[in-house]
Amino acid sequence: MKYVIIGGVAGGATTAARLRRNDESAEIIMFERGDYISYANCGLPYYLGGTIKDREDLFVQTPEKFYDSLHIDVRVQSEVTAINRDEKSIMVRDLIKDRQYRESYDKLVLSPGAMAVRPPIPGIGSDGIFTLRNVPDTDQIKSFIDTHKPSRVIIVGAGFIGLEMAENLHIQGVFVTIVEMADQVMNILDYEMAAEVHQHLKTKNVEFYLNDGVDSFERENNLLNVKLKSGRILQTDMVILSIGVRPENELAKKAGLEIGKTNGIVVNRFMQTNDPDIYALGDVIEFENPISGTTGIIPLAGPANKQGRIVADNLVYGNTKSYPGTIATGIAKVFDLTVASTGLPEKALKRLNIPYKAFVIHASDHAGYYPGAIPMTIKVVFAPRTGKLLGAQIVGYRGVDKRIDLFATIIGMNGTIWDLQNIEHAYAPPFSSAKDPVNIAGFVAENIFDGKSTHIHWCDLAETHDETGLSSKYTFLDVRTLEENKQGTIPGSIHIPHTELRERIHEIPRDKPIVIFCAAGLRAYLAERVLMQMDFHEVYNLSGGYQTYSQVSLKQSNEDIYEGYYIGKDDAIYQSPLNEK
Ligand code: FAD
C-alpha cells in the first residue's frame, strides 16, 4: 500500500508515524512545503520571547530522524500543487531543484493546515508587518527584532496568538499596543471573563484599543503609521497581525473535494472526504461540534494529533474508528493569568438559541488556610432541563489547567452538573480543598437547577440604574462586611452584613425584587436562603458577586492612559506632531 501525506507538521507527521507502526510494509511519503517537519508551532511565541532559548528545541523531529526510526520518505521543500483523483496521483513542485513531478498514491492524506489571514488593508505589504504561523515567520520576526531593536509593537487581534505575542514581546522590553475590533479580547470567552483579562493587561502596562480596527498602514522612514478606524493614528516600529486563520483548502477545492460553509474540507466521522481514497485532518477540516451540532474549524494542536491516529488506523484497518468531534478546549498564558475554556460560551448558546443557565463563581486554587491560596473565576453553562454541562471558562493564576481539563472531560462524556459534584479529586491543602472548585461549581449548579438559588447577571442589571445612580427596578442588598462595603459598592444598595441579617430583616423593603451580593457569591447565597424562607418572593444572587460586577463596570480598554500626545489640525490624535498629515 502506498500512502501519500500532504503536510508534515502536527496532523501529517502524527498520521505518518502511526501508519508505520500499523503497517511495516507500506510505502509512506510525506510532502512538506517548508523546510521543517513536526516542529513546535505552539512554542514559537515562547522562542521569540526568549523562554525557549535554543531554536533547535523547536524541532521535535527531522526528516533524517523520521527516516531512521520510521522509514518514512520525507520530502521537504516539496509543494503539492495538484491532485488528480482519477489517476490517483499528485503533482509536486520540488522547490530546491525547481522541477515538477508526478507521484502516485493508493491513499492520500491531507493535513495542509491553515494560513494566517492577511486582509487587503492598504499598506499591509509594508516592511515590519508580520504574521506568525511557521518557522520562517518566526525567523523573520526574530531577525527584525535583533536588527531594529523595536521599542513599540502593535498587535492586531487579541486571540490566543496575539496575546501570547503581546506577553513575549513585553518581557523583552517592547511597549505593546493591542488593537482589537471586538469589544473584548479572546472571543472564546464571555465578556465578564474577558473583563478580568482586560484589567490584568492594564496592570502590565499594555495599551489596548477595543472596538477599533486598522484602516491602513503606512511606512514613514523607520516607523509605521497605523491608522485606526476611529481616526487615531498610532506609530510603531513593527506590527504583528493575528486576526485568525483560514483553512489551506485550495488543493482540495481544485480537486473537487467537498468544501463546507466555513471553508474547511468536509469529512465524515472516519475523517474521510467525499473521495473514499482521500482523508483529511487538522486545521483544514470542518467538523460538527458535538454540543451545538453546528460545523466549524477548530485550529488546535490536540485535535490534529488525535485525528492523525484515527486516520492512520482507519487507513490500515478499514473505517473502524470514529472521531467524536472537538469541544474546543483551549488554554493560554496571558502574562500572570491562565485563561482557559471548553465547550460553548454563553454568547454562542444565545446566538444558537440553545436554552441554558449560566453562573460565575470565585474559588481558591487550594485550601484557604494553607498559605498562598489564590482565587480563580469559573463560569459554567448548563442545560436547564437536563443539567447537561455545556461549557466552562476559567480565568485565574494557578490550577486553572487541571480544572478546565476536568470540565472538558465531563462535557466530552456528555456529563451533567451532578457529575461535577461527584468528581473525586486528589486533595491535600497545598493542592486543593476538600471540595474542589469543580465540585463547588456542581453544587452551585444544582442549587440553581433546583430553584434554591436564582442567579442574576451583571448584564441583566446594565439598564436598571437611572441617572441619579439608583435603581427603580431592584433593591440591592450588600451583605459583605463594613470594611468591604467602604471600598466600593453598587450605587443605592442597602448594606447589612450577612451575619446581622436575621435581626435586621425588617430594614429590607418588600416592594421590589432583591438582588443580593457579596464579594464572590457564597454569603449572598446564605442570605438568599434566609430571605426566601422569610417569604421574600423575588430574590436574586448576583452571579460572581461584586468582584465580577466591579471588573465589568470598570473601563475595559485603556487608550486614555497612553493616548496620543498631540491632536492635529484634522482633529486626529497623533503620537507625535511629526506624523500630522
Ligand atoms: P500544521 O501543523 O500547520 O501543518 C501543515 C503543514 O502543511 C505546514 O507545514 C505547511 O507548510 C504544509 N503544507 C500546506 N500546504 C502544502 C502543500 N500544498 N504541499 C506541501 N505541504 C503543504 N494549538 C494549540 O492547541 N495550542 C497552542 O498553544 C497553540 N499555539 C499555537 C501557536 C502558534 C504561533 C501557531 C501558529 C499555532 C498554534 N496552535 C496551537 C495551533 C496548532 O499549531 C495547529 O492547530 C496545528 O499545528 C494544526 O495541525 P495541521 O497538521 O492541521 O497543520
Explain what this protein looks like in three dimensions:
The mean pLDDT is 94. Helix 5 (160-170) links the parallel strand 10 (152-156) and strand 11. Helix 1 packs parallel to helix 8 and helix 6 (191-203) packs across helix 15 (545-553). With 581 residues, the protein is an alpha/beta fold. The longest helix has 17 residues, at 301-317. The termini are far apart. It is 27% helix and 25% strand. The chain has a five-stranded parallel sheet with strand order 3-2-1-7-19. The structure holds flavin-adenine dinucleotide (FAD). Flavin-adenine dinucleotide binds at residues 6-7, 9-12, 31-34, 41-42, 44-45, 79-80, 111-113, 132-134, 161, 248, 251, 282-284, 299-302, 304.
Q: Give the N-to-C terminal Cα separation.
A: 65 Å
How large a portion of the residues is in β-strands, by DSSP E? 25-35%
Main sheet summary = 5 strands, parallel
The 3D shape can be described as globular
The hetero molecules present are: flavin-adenine dinucleotide
DSSP strand tally: 33
Specify Rg, calculated over alpha carbons. Answer: 27 Å
Query: Helical percent range?
Result: 25-40%
Task: Briefly say what this structure is.
With 581 residues, the chain is α/β, with parallel strands linked by helices. Helices cover 27% and strands 25% of the residues.
Salient structural properties:
16 helices; alpha/beta; five-stranded parallel β-sheet; globular; binds flavin-adenine dinucleotide; 581 residues
Could you outline the blueprint of secondary structure elements for this entry?
Elements: E1 2-6, H1 10-22, E2 27-31, H2 44-48, H3 63-70, E3 73-75, E4 78-84, E5 89-94, E6 99-104, E7 107-110, E8 114-116, E9 129-131, H4 135-148, E10 152-156, H5 160-170, E11 175-179, H6 191-203, E12 207-209, E13 214-220, E14 223-228, E15 233-236, E16 238-241, E17 245-247, H7 250-254, E18 265-266, E19 278-280, E20 285-288, E21 295-296, H8 301-317, E22 330-334, E23 337-343, H9 346-351, E24 357-364, E25 375-382, E26 389-396, H10 400-412, H11 417-422, H12 437-449, E27 455-456, E28 475-478, H13 482-486, E29 494-495, E30 514-517, H14 522-533, E31 539-542, H15 545-553, H16 559-562, E32 566-567, E33 573-574
Parallel strand pairs: 1-2, 1-7, 2-3, 7-19, 9-16, 10-11, 10-16, 11-12, 18-20, 27-31, 28-29, 28-30, 30-31
Antiparallel strand pairs: 4-5, 5-6, 8-17, 13-14, 14-15, 20-21, 22-23, 23-26, 24-25, 25-26, 32-33
The structure holds flavin-adenine dinucleotide (FAD).
